[in-house]
UniProtKB/TrEMBL annotation:
Pathway annotation from the record: Metabolic intermediate biosynthesis; chorismate biosynthesis; chorismate from D-erythrose 4-phosphate and phosphoenolpyruvate: step 3/7
EC number, UniProt record: 4.2.1.10
Active site residues per record: 23 (proton acceptor), 105 (proton donor)
Subunit composition and interactions: Homododecamer.
Protein name: 3-dehydroquinate dehydratase
Designated gene of the protein: aroQ
Xref: Pfam families: DHquinase_II
């Protein structure tokens, strides 16, 4: 079965209890289960990973790139959390592989602090979904698999 990788970065393990006015009340487990359901409608499975460590996220992108080459993985839905605004290393990792990466942000980062307005990920992402709540993950999967 073909798969998609769903990757969440730092602090997204706290979804459901962290700043619910920004991120809502769904937990990461809820988000991952919804992703699994949406992908399964296309006959796809999902592999979900959350890490608070930049290097683990880089390794996940590299692995998705290798699996894309082998025809096993068709894309990555990636919420890089705060690394969005800081990580040249994640930018380089995405640039270094061919797999399409959709950048997702639950909150509207452009309506928040100015340090959240710049993304190192957007220039190397296949697309970005911002401010649509946790529904953004579903929209990203639809985009990747409707093509
Ligand atoms: C976030 C936005 C980031 O600025 C923040 O650091 C996060 C979550 C979002 O999903 O809205 O951790 O990526």
């Amino acid at each position: 079965m073909k798969k998609l990788l769903i990757v969440n970065g730092p602090n997204l393990n706290l979804l459901g209890s962290r700043e619910p006015q920004q991120y809502g009340y769904e937990t990461l487990a809820d988000v991952e289960e919804n992703c699994r359901k949406v992908a399964s409608e296309y006959g796809y499975e999902t592999e979900c990973l959350q890490s608070n460590t930049e290097g683990h996220l880089i390794d996940a992108i590299h692995k998705a790139g290798a699996e894309f080459k082998q025809g096993h993985c068709d894309g990555v839905v990636f919420n890089p959390g705060a690394y969005t605004h800081t990580s040249i290393a994640l930018h380089d990792a995405i640039k270094g592989v061919d797999v399409p990466v959709i950048e997702v942000h639950i909150s509207n980062v452009h309506a928040r602090e100015t340090f959240r307005h710049h993304s190192y990920i957007s220039p190397v992402a296949a697309g970005t979904i911002i401010g649509m709540g946790t529904k953004g993950y579903k929209l990203a999967i639809n985009f990747l698999l409707d093509r």
